[in-house]
Every structure is written in C-alpha cells, then in structure tokens.
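Quick entry, no commentary yet.
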Amino acid sequence: FIGLMPMLTIFSDLDHKLDDNSSLVLEIGSIINDTRSVEIAVKVASRTMALLRDMMHDSANVRPRSSAGEDLLHQCDFCAGVSRAVAPAIATLDNSVAAALAETRAEVDRQLSPENRRALQRSLREATEPLVQVKDTLRGTFGKFTDTSNSKKLRNYIDGDY
C-alpha cells in the first residue's frame, strides 16, 4: 500500500503533463518552433543546390545552340564540373543532422498531437483504474485503523475498556 500512492501520484502527474497548456507541452512546442528555422534553411540550401545542379546539367547549358538550333561549337566544362561537384553536397545536406532534426521534429509533432495526447491520457487512466480501486478498497477496509480520531476508541476497545 505504501508504494501504491507514490505510483498513482506519478501516473497522475504524467497525465497532467499531457494537458494542452502544461509546462511540458508548452516547452516542447517552443523547442519545435525554435528549430523550425534550421529545417527551412536546410531545405532552401538543398533545393537551391539542386536547381544549380539541374541548370548546369541541362544540355542547353552544356552544349548551347543558337535560336535557329545550330550548334554553337561550345561545350561548358564548368557546367559539367559544377553539376558533379554539387551532387554530393546535396546528398550531405539531405542526410545531415539538420535533416534528421527535421524528421525528429515532425515525429514529435505527430506523437504529441492533441489526439495522441488524449489517447495517452485515456490509456494512463485505464491502466491506473484497477490500482485506484485497490487503493479505495484498502482505504475503506483499514481507514478506521489509521484514522487518528478513532485510535483512542480502538485502543480502549482492545484493552477491554468499553
């Protein structure tokens, strides 16, 4: 019984921490919002580099032609070099810590959505319901023994002083 109350208190505290305006939910929301700029910056850099790669790889830039379609007898070696050099940088950005952070942010957002938090709270309450019933039964059964106002009466009864 002694360990039951602290455990129920922990479950109750956890339940309250999942409330909409709890300090935990507000702090996590703040962290999610504060890291959004990192995700945006990585996306912009990666997409910009992809545009550069695609532009440099475009045949109109590698082997330009006149408006009449005639070969201008020019091959852009710079274009081919840049296109090849930018590809690993794009892959690095797309697989970077910042990209992992963006995925983590999205997952935390999903897991701690209001619907998921409500479901977690329901699960906590359902899981603790049998423990609350045990607590109530024990309190009802032994409450008279632990009630200080009844202790003198109980002692007198046990001693035979009615």
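second:
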Amino acid sequence: GDRRRGSLLLAVSQLDKVLAAEDRNIDYEDLITNEFNRIKEQSSDAISCNEALRLDYRSGSISDTIYKAKQALSKSTAEVAHSWWVPNSYETLSQITQDVAKTKSANHELPILTRNELIQEINNFCEMVPQSS
C-alpha cells in the first residue's frame, strides 16, 4: 500500500539470534540482514533506516535497548510528520464530532455517533456556516 517514508520500523530481538543459532550452519547476522533488505525493498520507501532495530532484553542491555527504540520511534515520527498533510476540512469535522460528543455527554448519553447522525450534524453545520462548506 501507500505508506509514508519512515512509517514502518522493523526490529529484531536477541531471541531471534537464539533461534537461528540452534542451526550451527546459519550465520544469523546474514540471515537477519538479508531478510531486512528483502522487506525494505518491498516497502516502497516506508522503511528509512539502514538496518533492523536491535532489541536486547537482557538485564545489562535493556536501558540501551529502550534508548535505541525511543530514538528510532522519534526519527520515524518526525519523518512521517514532515510529509503529513491534513486538509482544514478535517479540523472542522473534528470540531463537529467533539461538539456532538460534549453535547451527548452533557445529556448523559454515550458519545457514539451513527453515520446518519454524523451526516445530519454536518448538514446542520453547513446550513449555519455556509461559507465553511
């Protein structure tokens, strides 16, 4: 599908190495690198990092793993946000649904909006604020 650059992050843990090491004839680093490269080629640039994020859950390594995961997620979030565009109409739609949720909450109703209710609320908004529609 159409994925934004940086929107896909792949990780591998030390457990993957343990499973690969059971077969003594396999170089797990080559196995991981080859699989990562295969997936990256098929990702349509959604993966922007050069290698899989290495997750090590051993007690001496967990702090470093958490730091690396936070850094990778921050980088991915920044890349996605850089190319993200949301039309102003979404902000208007968001405000309409928030207003309906507040009204329903004040009336002790569940803030669930059916499709027909949403259409009616949008039509009401367009009638009250025709220049916005």
